[in-house]
Specification:
28% strand, alpha/beta, 8 helices, 10 strands
Length: 239
Protein backbone atom coordinates (compact mmCIF):
# COMPACT_ATOMS: atom_id res chain seq x y z
CA UNK A 1 0.00 0.00 0.00
CA UNK A 2 1.19 3.54 -0.76
CA UNK A 3 1.23 5.10 2.72
CA UNK A 4 1.62 8.62 1.38
CA UNK A 5 -1.40 8.22 -0.88
CA UNK A 6 -3.47 6.83 1.99
CA UNK A 7 -2.54 9.76 4.21
CA UNK A 8 -3.62 12.21 1.51
CA UNK A 9 -7.00 10.58 0.96
CA UNK A 10 -9.77 13.08 1.85
CA UNK A 11 -12.15 12.33 4.69
CA UNK A 12 -15.64 11.11 3.69
CA UNK A 13 -18.03 13.97 3.03
CA UNK A 14 -21.23 12.29 4.23
CA UNK A 15 -20.80 12.89 7.95
CA UNK A 16 -21.10 15.27 10.87
CA UNK A 17 -17.76 15.75 12.62
CA UNK A 18 -17.21 17.67 15.87
CA UNK A 19 -13.72 18.35 17.21
CA UNK A 20 -13.17 19.94 20.63
CA UNK A 21 -16.63 21.53 20.73
CA UNK A 22 -17.37 23.70 23.76
CA UNK A 23 -20.57 25.61 24.52
CA UNK A 24 -20.68 27.81 27.57
CA UNK A 25 -23.45 29.93 29.06
CA UNK A 26 -23.28 32.64 31.68
CA UNK A 27 -25.91 32.13 34.39
CA UNK A 28 -25.61 34.98 36.84
CA UNK A 29 -21.98 35.01 37.91
CA UNK A 30 -21.53 31.32 37.04
CA UNK A 31 -20.32 29.76 33.78
CA UNK A 32 -22.19 26.63 32.72
CA UNK A 33 -20.20 24.25 30.50
CA UNK A 34 -23.09 22.81 28.49
CA UNK A 35 -20.63 21.05 26.15
CA UNK A 36 -17.07 20.42 27.27
CA UNK A 37 -14.57 19.54 24.50
CA UNK A 38 -16.84 17.13 22.66
CA UNK A 39 -15.46 15.00 19.83
CA UNK A 40 -18.08 13.16 17.78
CA UNK A 41 -18.54 11.75 14.29
CA UNK A 42 -21.95 10.77 12.88
CA UNK A 43 -21.85 8.87 9.61
CA UNK A 44 -24.42 8.64 6.84
CA UNK A 45 -27.53 6.65 7.70
CA UNK A 46 -26.70 6.09 11.38
CA UNK A 47 -29.41 5.73 14.05
CA UNK A 48 -28.16 7.34 17.25
CA UNK A 49 -29.83 8.00 20.59
CA UNK A 50 -28.55 10.75 22.89
CA UNK A 51 -29.33 10.21 26.57
CA UNK A 52 -28.29 11.48 29.97
CA UNK A 53 -29.71 13.30 33.01
CA UNK A 54 -31.33 16.73 32.77
CA UNK A 55 -28.69 19.40 32.25
CA UNK A 56 -26.18 16.96 30.77
CA UNK A 57 -26.00 18.80 27.43
CA UNK A 58 -28.23 16.59 25.26
CA UNK A 59 -30.34 19.32 23.69
CA UNK A 60 -27.36 21.66 23.41
CA UNK A 61 -25.49 18.99 21.45
CA UNK A 62 -28.49 18.47 19.17
CA UNK A 63 -28.83 22.22 18.62
CA UNK A 64 -25.14 22.57 17.73
CA UNK A 65 -25.36 19.62 15.34
CA UNK A 66 -28.49 21.15 13.84
CA UNK A 67 -26.86 24.59 13.39
CA UNK A 68 -29.38 26.18 15.74
CA UNK A 69 -26.64 27.10 18.22
CA UNK A 70 -23.00 28.09 17.83
CA UNK A 71 -20.14 26.61 19.85
CA UNK A 72 -17.75 28.90 21.70
CA UNK A 73 -14.79 26.74 20.71
CA UNK A 74 -13.96 23.84 18.40
CA UNK A 75 -14.59 22.83 14.80
CA UNK A 76 -17.72 21.43 13.16
CA UNK A 77 -17.55 19.95 9.68
CA UNK A 78 -20.87 19.09 8.02
CA UNK A 79 -20.75 17.08 4.78
CA UNK A 80 -17.11 18.10 4.42
CA UNK A 81 -17.73 21.83 4.96
CA UNK A 82 -16.37 23.71 7.97
CA UNK A 83 -19.52 25.39 9.29
CA UNK A 84 -17.94 26.65 12.53
CA UNK A 85 -17.55 30.26 11.40
CA UNK A 86 -20.34 30.68 8.83
CA UNK A 87 -22.52 33.76 9.13
CA UNK A 88 -26.22 33.43 9.94
CA UNK A 89 -27.39 33.37 6.32
CA UNK A 90 -24.87 30.69 5.34
CA UNK A 91 -25.80 28.62 8.41
CA UNK A 92 -29.47 28.83 7.47
CA UNK A 93 -28.67 27.65 3.94
CA UNK A 94 -26.58 24.73 5.22
CA UNK A 95 -29.33 23.74 7.65
CA UNK A 96 -31.91 23.92 4.89
CA UNK A 97 -29.83 21.68 2.60
CA UNK A 98 -28.87 19.00 5.07
CA UNK A 99 -30.95 18.91 8.27
CA UNK A 100 -34.54 18.32 9.34
CA UNK A 101 -35.72 18.97 12.91
CA UNK A 102 -38.55 17.39 14.92
CA UNK A 103 -39.47 18.95 18.27
CA UNK A 104 -41.43 17.69 21.27
CA UNK A 105 -44.01 20.47 20.97
CA UNK A 106 -44.32 20.38 17.15
CA UNK A 107 -43.77 24.14 16.54
CA UNK A 108 -46.40 24.30 13.82
CA UNK A 109 -47.89 27.62 12.70
CA UNK A 110 -51.46 27.56 14.07
CA UNK A 111 -53.14 29.55 11.28
CA UNK A 112 -51.71 27.37 8.50
CA UNK A 113 -53.12 24.04 7.36
CA UNK A 114 -51.09 20.84 7.52
CA UNK A 115 -50.26 21.24 3.84
CA UNK A 116 -49.22 24.88 4.25
CA UNK A 117 -47.02 24.05 7.24
CA UNK A 118 -45.18 21.41 5.22
CA UNK A 119 -44.92 23.72 2.20
CA UNK A 120 -43.27 26.46 4.26
CA UNK A 121 -39.60 25.35 3.79
CA UNK A 122 -40.24 25.17 0.04
CA UNK A 123 -41.77 28.66 0.06
CA UNK A 124 -38.56 29.95 1.65
CA UNK A 125 -36.51 28.46 -1.21
CA UNK A 126 -38.69 30.13 -3.83
CA UNK A 127 -40.14 26.88 -5.21
CA UNK A 128 -43.06 27.32 -7.60
CA UNK A 129 -46.53 26.88 -6.03
CA UNK A 130 -47.39 23.79 -8.09
CA UNK A 131 -44.10 22.08 -7.22
CA UNK A 132 -44.29 22.78 -3.50
CA UNK A 133 -47.94 21.72 -3.33
CA UNK A 134 -47.15 18.42 -5.06
CA UNK A 135 -44.11 17.69 -2.87
CA UNK A 136 -45.88 18.60 0.38
CA UNK A 137 -48.91 16.49 -0.57
CA UNK A 138 -46.72 13.48 -1.35
CA UNK A 139 -44.86 13.82 1.96
CA UNK A 140 -48.06 14.07 4.01
CA UNK A 141 -49.53 11.07 2.22
CA UNK A 142 -46.35 9.13 3.04
CA UNK A 143 -46.91 9.73 6.78
CA UNK A 144 -50.59 8.78 6.60
CA UNK A 145 -52.15 12.25 6.54
CA UNK A 146 -53.60 12.30 3.03
CA UNK A 147 -57.15 12.91 4.29
CA UNK A 148 -56.04 15.72 6.66
CA UNK A 149 -54.16 18.02 4.29
CA UNK A 150 -56.40 21.01 4.85
CA UNK A 151 -56.82 20.77 8.63
CA UNK A 152 -55.17 23.30 10.91
CA UNK A 153 -53.11 22.11 13.91
CA UNK A 154 -55.98 22.73 16.35
CA UNK A 155 -58.09 20.31 14.31
CA UNK A 156 -55.50 17.53 14.60
CA UNK A 157 -54.54 15.12 17.37
CA UNK A 158 -51.10 15.25 18.94
CA UNK A 159 -49.91 12.31 16.89
CA UNK A 160 -51.23 13.91 13.70
CA UNK A 161 -49.50 17.20 14.52
CA UNK A 162 -46.22 15.35 14.98
CA UNK A 163 -46.73 13.70 11.59
CA UNK A 164 -47.13 17.17 10.08
CA UNK A 165 -43.91 18.20 11.84
CA UNK A 166 -42.14 15.16 10.39
CA UNK A 167 -43.44 16.07 6.93
CA UNK A 168 -42.10 19.60 7.29
CA UNK A 169 -38.73 18.19 8.47
CA UNK A 170 -38.28 15.87 5.48
CA UNK A 171 -39.83 17.82 2.60
CA UNK A 172 -36.39 19.23 1.71
CA UNK A 173 -34.98 15.66 1.62
CA UNK A 174 -32.35 16.14 4.34
CA UNK A 175 -29.46 13.80 5.05
CA UNK A 176 -29.97 14.11 8.83
CA UNK A 177 -33.13 14.04 10.91
CA UNK A 178 -32.68 15.44 14.44
CA UNK A 179 -35.46 14.68 16.92
CA UNK A 180 -35.68 16.25 20.39
CA UNK A 181 -38.02 14.12 22.55
CA UNK A 182 -40.32 13.47 19.56
CA UNK A 183 -42.67 11.22 21.58
CA UNK A 184 -42.49 13.17 24.85
CA UNK A 185 -45.84 14.93 24.32
CA UNK A 186 -47.72 11.89 23.01
CA UNK A 187 -49.56 8.88 24.44
CA UNK A 188 -47.84 5.52 24.06
CA UNK A 189 -49.85 4.43 20.99
CA UNK A 190 -49.21 7.67 19.08
CA UNK A 191 -45.59 7.67 20.22
CA UNK A 192 -45.10 4.14 18.89
CA UNK A 193 -46.56 5.15 15.53
CA UNK A 194 -44.25 8.17 15.33
CA UNK A 195 -41.22 5.99 16.09
CA UNK A 196 -42.22 3.59 13.31
CA UNK A 197 -42.39 6.49 10.84
CA UNK A 198 -39.02 7.99 11.71
CA UNK A 199 -37.35 4.58 11.86
CA UNK A 200 -38.70 3.85 8.38
CA UNK A 201 -37.08 7.10 7.21
CA UNK A 202 -33.81 5.91 8.75
CA UNK A 203 -34.07 2.59 6.90
CA UNK A 204 -34.54 4.63 3.72
CA UNK A 205 -31.16 6.27 4.34
CA UNK A 206 -31.68 9.36 6.51
CA UNK A 207 -29.38 9.51 9.54
CA UNK A 208 -31.52 9.73 12.69
CA UNK A 209 -30.38 11.35 15.94
CA UNK A 210 -32.87 11.29 18.78
CA UNK A 211 -32.66 12.92 22.21
CA UNK A 212 -34.79 11.10 24.76
CA UNK A 213 -35.18 10.46 28.48
CA UNK A 214 -36.98 7.19 27.76
CA UNK A 215 -34.61 4.19 27.89
CA UNK A 216 -37.01 2.11 25.81
CA UNK A 217 -37.00 4.70 23.03
CA UNK A 218 -33.25 5.18 23.35
CA UNK A 219 -32.64 1.46 23.27
CA UNK A 220 -34.18 1.18 19.81
CA UNK A 221 -31.22 3.03 18.27
CA UNK A 222 -28.20 1.24 16.84
CA UNK A 223 -25.74 3.53 18.63
CA UNK A 224 -26.17 5.03 22.09
CA UNK A 225 -24.46 8.19 23.37
CA UNK A 226 -24.60 9.07 27.07
CA UNK A 227 -23.80 12.61 28.20
CA UNK A 228 -22.94 13.86 31.67
CA UNK A 229 -21.80 17.37 32.59
CA UNK A 230 -21.34 18.31 28.95
CA UNK A 231 -19.13 15.32 28.09
CA UNK A 232 -19.81 12.14 26.17
CA UNK A 233 -19.11 9.53 28.83
CA UNK A 234 -20.30 6.50 26.82
CA UNK A 235 -20.51 5.75 23.11
CA UNK A 236 -21.99 2.31 22.60
CA UNK A 237 -21.98 1.42 18.93
CA UNK A 238 -23.62 -1.92 19.54
CA UNK A 239 -22.68 -5.22 17.95
Amino acid sequence: MNVGAAAARPAPLDMMELKGICREYAVGDQTVHALDHVDLTIGAGEYVSIMGPSGSGKSTLLNVLGLLDRPNEGTYRLQGEDVSSLDDDALAQARQRHIGFIFQFFHLIPRLTALENVELPLVLTGAAPRERRARATAVLESVGLGPRLHHRPDQLSGGERQRVAIGRAIVMQPSYLLADEPTGNLDSKSGGEIMQIIERLNRDGIALLIVTHDPIIGGRAHRHLTLRDGKIVKDDKGP
